[in-house]
Fold this sequence. Notes:
By secondary structure, the protein is mainly alpha-helical. The protein has a domain at 23-66. It is 62% helix and 9% strand. A two-stranded antiparallel ribbon has the order 1-2. The chain is elongated and about 55 Å long. The chain starts with a helix and ends with a helix.
Amino acid sequence: ALKVLEKQGLIVSRGSKGFFVIESEKKIIELRNQNFNRLTKILFEKLYALGFSDSEIIKLFDRIET
């Protein structure tokens, strides 16, 4: 798990001192946006593969309650 977080840039290794969470808010926001874009792309690919049209997808999102 630590290797995955380190590869994503969320933590850094300080040798024998251990791992530390990054402090860069800019980097955290960048990583969140990258994940959002990746997940959104996957979602739309799957919806289109299931045969949903653009208008049907819009209707589905309109029905979501927050």
